[in-house]
Design goal:
heterodimer; A: about 475 residues; alpha+beta; Nuclear Transport Factor 2, Chain: A; 4 domains; 5-stranded antiparallel beta sheet; B: about 200 residues; mainly alpha; 9 helices
Chain lengths: ~475, ~200
């Protein structure tokens, strides 16, 4: 990761967790009210809304909407969302009495039909709802996931209520054969999320879970995931390990409706004609693609990398790709194929050492791994750390890097087969252009994608940044800042 | 099993532009009694203010308090602002003073040194609330106090090393070397983490 990426990522993370104190600030100055609302509508502050919850302004707006009649009793303190497939929202007041129960989809209408929940304690209502979902077959061994979403301005109160709800739902289901998988999360008035929830006619809780999955896996679209049940969403969330933060979780979502990961692996192996002993699994995960739940499986066998997509319901092979060690790939090509590895470990080591001009006896630490048909070879010598990537089929140096092994900033250089300009040459181009000789904090990075050097240094009270084309030595970009 | 983390895994796309623009005129407008300018100023500076406070205090709650107090202080002091084209540095100096004041009061309450107070009181909180996956948690853990402040300032405030030197009161050469060292530490850690996988 480059310096710039690190700094950008850090800035982004801080931006994400920056709380919104604008509401508090303006409460002290009533004449500023319109500004408050403007401030709290600031976009792209997803995370802060998770933490801060509904702003005081929103609560006020709600109270105004109710015309202040019975303000205390009828003001909504918390909204509890319960999603199985039926999606129901319970609006409760400060005393935790239900003011309103809202059906968000047609399944929820079935559940809420003839139930009168207003005026009862929230836990009585939750009991009735879960009981009815169980009775009506919305919750069973194959669909055991329940998503609980709590929307309260006070993060601590939300968390406390989440835990209480999980405990209560566990108790309700303890008499049944269902081992529930519970997910509890805090949600709050994120305008963007509310818009999505309204568009797809789903609860805010479900929308936020979908958003989390989309964030973890950018290939997924909200549109595609909006049709999935909570159970499937939970399976995906778990598979992509997105459920481990920001939510409380308990139990595992039932995969009973689907084949197991082991079954999927065997299906892939038997299709490839590879025995389990000779296969080395690289990865497998459950995914949702083209409207169905699938397993994505990758394994190595006989120098060939196999990628399979297996239908999680029928175990049918949906897609298969092989890539032999030479790097060429063919979709749907049948397995087999001989190893394209022509270079041994010893040869790879020799190639790197020759390039570095160091004899094997001078190496102090080394690592030599074969990954993706490339040898990754690292060693330290003469105070420098060397990192080589060498193609296992051709013996070409794909990439190399040399940097000071100590922590102190020192010169470092790197290059690749595509770079005609050496790092030293690039340095002299940059320094020459800047008209300086005495620099400190000198740093050079090689960007393989764009085949350019990125150089940073300070001199004479200025900070310089250069980008140099690694084939031509042309200066692509320069910046000088005081 | 229950496990709790207050942060969500949401990844927000952030713009590569690291230099927030702060309009100096807003402070002058504030000084002239136009309080509405505060909303815009807040919008331009909130994450820099919070980030810097957090880097000093290592405690999200304390940082939020300092953030709040900073804007009140800006309201109070806008009249004494001398326009020199450095509104961000001025604001961050307020943050620093308020944060240090808070550390000192924590020290008086607990009879610990400022560092210990900040560390003992807060580092536990912090790790519980900032997901381990975040780079920020690594920054908090790996770097020394000064390194952490320098790196955070550089990332969120758009200040140059020279200005960071004036805000933190550290010599420019120290700022530069600590800046480099911090990035190396983070890179090294990320590499090791990557290799372990």
């Amino acid at each position: 990761m480059k310096n710039k990426e690190i700094l950008n990522r850090l800035a982004g993370e801080i931006r994400d967790i920056t709380p919104d104190v604008s509401g508090k600030l303006s409460l002290n100055s009533p004449e500023n009210k319109t500004e408050v609302i403007k401030m709290s509508q600031k976009p792209n502050k997803k995370l802060k809304r998770w933490i801060i919850g509904v702003s005081a302004a929103a609560v006020m707006a709600l109270a105004v909407g109710l015309g202040f009649s019975g303000y205390r009793y009828y003001s909504v303190d918390t909204v509890i969302g319960i999603d199985v497939n039926p999606s129901i929202e319970l609006k409760i007041n400060k005393n935790e009495t239900v003011i309103d129960a809202v059906a968000l989809n047609s399944d929820a209408e079935v559940i809420l039909d003839e139930m009168k929940l207003s005026g009862v304690d929230y836990n009585v209502a939750v009991n009735a709802l879960i009981g009815s979902m169980l009775k009506n077959g919305y919750i069973d061994e194959l669909k055991n996931s329940i998503l609980i979403s709590v929307d309260n301005a006070d993060a601590q109160k939300s968390a406390e209520l989440e835990e209480r709800l999980m405990k209560e739902i566990n108790e309700i289901l303890s008499g049944s054969s269902v081992e529930p998988a519970l997910l509890a999360q805090s949600v709050s008035g994120d305008a963007q999320l509310e818009e999505l929830a309204a568009k797809y006619n789903i609860s805010l809780g479900r929308a936020s879970l979908i958003q989390k999955i989309c964030d973890a896996d950018p290939t997924k679209t909200f549109d595609a995931l909006a049709q999935l049940s909570v159970n499937d969403l939970y399976l995906l969330a778990e598979s992509k390990s997105v459920s481990s933060s920001g939510v409380l979780s308990q139990g595992s979502p039932s995969a009973g409706a689907y084949i197991s990961a082991d079954d999927a692996k065997s299906a892939a192996l038997s299709h490839a004609g590879v025995s389990a002993d000779s296969a080395e699994f690289i990865s497998y995960e459950m995914d949702f693609d083209d409207g169905r739940m699938i397993y994505e499986i990758e394994f190595l066998a006989g120098g060939v990398k196999y990628e399979y997509e297996i239908d999680a319901e029928s175990a049918a092979v949906i897609k298969q790709e092989t890539e032999n060690a030479g790097g060429s790939s063919g979709a749907g090509s049948s397995g087999g194929g001989s190893s394209g590895r022509a270079i041994t470990r010893e040869q790879a080591q020799e190639i790197a050492l020759n390039h570095a001009g160091i004899s094997v006896s001078d190496i102090t630490v080394s690592k030599l791994e074969l990954d993706d048909n490339k040898y990754d070879f690292e060693f330290i010598s003469g105070g420098y750390k060397y990192d080589y990537e060498i193609s296992a089929s051709t013996g070409n140096i794909v990439e190399w890097k040399k940097e000071a092994a100590s922590n102190s900033s020192g010169s470092s250089s790197s290059g690749s087969s595509g770079a005609a300009v050496t790092p030293d040459k690039a340095k002299s181009i940059a320094l020459g252009d800047a008209g300086v000789t005495d620099v400190y904090g000198y740093e050079i990075d090689y960007d393989r994608d764009d085949n350019k050097y990125e150089i940073e240094f300070s001199a004479g009270g200025y900070e310089y940044e250069y980008e140099i084309n690694a084939s031509t030595g042309d200066i692509i970009k320069k910046e000088k800042d005081r | 099993m229950f496990f709790i983390g207050l942060t969500s895994t949401m990844k927000t796309a952030f713009s590569p532009e690291r230099k927030p623009h702060v309009d100096e005129r807003l402070i002058l407008e504030l000084a002239g009694g136009e309080r509405r300018a505060l909303a815009e100023l807040y919008r331009q500076t909130d994450s820099a203010v919070y980030g810097f406070a957090l880097s000093i205090l290592k405690d999200p709650h304390a940082a939020e308090d300092v953030m709040h107090d900073t804007y009140l202080k800006i309201l109070d002091s806008a009249q004494s602002y001398a326009p020199m084209g450095k509104p961000m540095a001025w604001i961050l100096t307020i943050v620093k003073n308020l944060a240090l004041m808070r550390l000192r009061s924590a020290k008086n309450e607990t009879e610990l040194t400022a560092d210990q107070a900040a560390g003992a009181e807060n580092s536990g909180d912090f790790t519980a609330e900032i997901s381990d996956r975040l780079l920020l948690s690594k920054v908090m853990r790996l770097l020394t106090d000064e390194e952490r402040q320098i790196i955070t300032l550089y990332a969120v405030s758009g200040l140059k090393h020279r200005e960071i030197s004036s805000v933190t009161g550290l010599p420019l050469s120290t700022v530069l070397s600590k800046y480099r060292r911090s990035l190396l530490k983070i890179k090294k850690h990320l590499e090791e983490e990557h290799n372990e996988k």
